[in-house]
């Protein structure tokens, strides 16, 4: 640093010290800047300056975690707030051209803001970062960084292709609606919105709304994030394997239908696989009144397998029953490996009734699988 630069720096520090003395000599941060005198006692006429204005600008809303059984979403929630305090103004010409300074938060009055509808809030407000910026016209701004866990209702009917909307809500409890005004906007994010999710979830959009609540007594500021699940994990590791397990199980059940001892093993193995999938879903999803479509698919697959197993048990008995009736009428029963000579007889020989049942259950299994994606 040159001697001239050092001289300018010392001059700046001296002017800044004088400015601090001027601003905070009689300033009390415990007295707020919200105007509350609406009616003068003498005239009872409404005479007051414009409402106190607070500007909220969203800087970051990144999805960290979604705990569906608890219907809870965790965000990195950073925002910038700006307001005006007429007690902290000065003429830059009187203080060497200084038009803004940085002041510890404890030295200025800060409007009360509360994050509501949340289960946990962790604010990164270490002492060495707790500063606000103050401009000569009295405008003050500060940056707040936090990790916020919010509770939001989740509709998991379309799981694993589900989409949810959760919001981080800021409420100004203390002040009356007629005393202050909130303006807000979504600032420029450090990354595109679609990169603000995590490995399982993708952020689709971020919106901000401001609305009066509690009988129009205060404002609620909502920062809403809409995010959808990346379904690849469940499609590849749950849905497709479950579908092909059912396909192979149905084929195994209706091939060589007379050998029923092995059919029960195949059927019970399939039922256990589907039951295991249901157990996984019951642990990962909230207990809502609407069953997720994947659970409906699994239960339907289980029902198809139970009906198939029932058909395998009953078909041999029905075939024996009709064979005995034909014998009673004196009809000739062809052997199993004897190919009939007539065209209709050959059709019935090659397209046995169990194959028809197999085709019907395979179609039902395929339709059940396709419905998930509609």
UniProtKB/TrEMBL annotation:
Major localisation:
membrane
Per the record, the domain of life is Eukaryota
The record lists the membrane-crossing segments as: 232-255, 264-282, 294-316, 355-373
Q: Name one GO molecular function term.
A: transmembrane signaling receptor activity
* Membrane topology recorded in Swiss-Prot or TrEMBL: Multi-pass membrane protein
Q: Where in the cell is it found?
A: Membrane
Neurotransmitter-gated ion-channel ligand-binding domain ranges (all copies): 18-216
CDD domains tied to this protein: LGIC_ECD_cation, LGIC_TM_cation
Keywords from the named record:
Ion channel, Ion transport, Membrane, Transmembrane, Transmembrane helix, Transport
Q: Which InterPro entries match?
A: Neur_chan_lig-bd (IPR006202), Neur_chan_lig-bd_sf (IPR036734), Neur_channel (IPR006201), Neuro-gated_channel_TM_sf (IPR036719), Neuro_actylchol_rec (IPR038050), Neurotransmitter_ion_chnl_CS (IPR018000)
Q: Which GO terms describe its cellular component?
A: membrane
Q: Name one Pfam family in it.
A: Neur_chan_LBD
Q: Which family does it belong to?
A: Belongs to the ligand-gated ion channel (TC 1.A.9) family.
State the protein's name. Neurotransmitter-gated ion-channel ligand-binding domain-containing protein
- Report the source organism: Caenorhabditis brenneri
């Amino acid at each position: 640093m040159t001697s001239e630069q050092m001289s300018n720096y010392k001059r700046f520090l001296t002017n800044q010290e004088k400015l601090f003395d001027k601003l905070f000599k009689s300033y009390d941060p415990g007295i707020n800047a919200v105007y509350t005198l609406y009616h003068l006692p003498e005239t009872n006429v409404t005479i007051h300056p414009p409402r106190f204005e607070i500007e909220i600008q969203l800087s970051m809303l990144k999805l960290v975690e979604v705990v569906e059984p608890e219907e809870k979403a965790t965000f990195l929630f950073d925002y910038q707030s700006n307001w005006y305090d007429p007690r902290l103004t000065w003429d830059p010409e009187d203080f060497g051209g200084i038009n803004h300074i940085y002041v510890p938060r404890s030295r200025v009055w800060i409007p009360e803001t509360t994050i509501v509808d949340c289960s946990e809030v962790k604010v990164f407000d270490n002492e060495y970062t707790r500063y606000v910026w103050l401009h000569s016209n009295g405008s003050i701004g500060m940056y707040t960084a936090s990790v916020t866990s919010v509770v939001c209702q989740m509709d998991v009917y379309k799981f694993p292709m589900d989409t949810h909307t959760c919001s981080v809500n800021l409420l100004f409890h203390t002040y009356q609606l007629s005393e202050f005004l909130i303006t807000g906007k979504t600032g420029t994010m450090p990354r595109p919105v679609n990169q603000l999710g995590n490995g399982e979830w993708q952020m689709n959009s971020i919106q901000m709304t401001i609305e009066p609540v509690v009988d129009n007594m205060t404002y609620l500021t909502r920062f809403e994030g809409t995010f959808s699940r990346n379904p690849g994990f469940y499609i590849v590791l749950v849905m497709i394997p479950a579908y092909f397990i059912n396909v192979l199980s149905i084929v195994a059940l209706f091939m060589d239908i007379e050998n029923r001892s092995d059919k029960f093993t195949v059927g019970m193995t399939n039922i256990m696989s589907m039951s295991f999938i249901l157990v996984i879903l019951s642990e990962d999803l909230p207990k809502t009144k609407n069953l997720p479509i994947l659970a409906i698919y699994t239960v339907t697959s289980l029902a198809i397998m139970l009906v198939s197993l029932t058909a395998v048990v009953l078909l041999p008995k029905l075939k024996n029953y009709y064979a005995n009736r034909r014998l009673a009428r004196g009809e000739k029963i062809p052997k199993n490996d004897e190919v009939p000579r007539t065209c209709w007889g050959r059709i019935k020989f090659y397209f046995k009734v169990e194959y028809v049942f197999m085709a019907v259950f395979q179609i039902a299994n395929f339709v059940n699988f396709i419905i998930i994606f509609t």
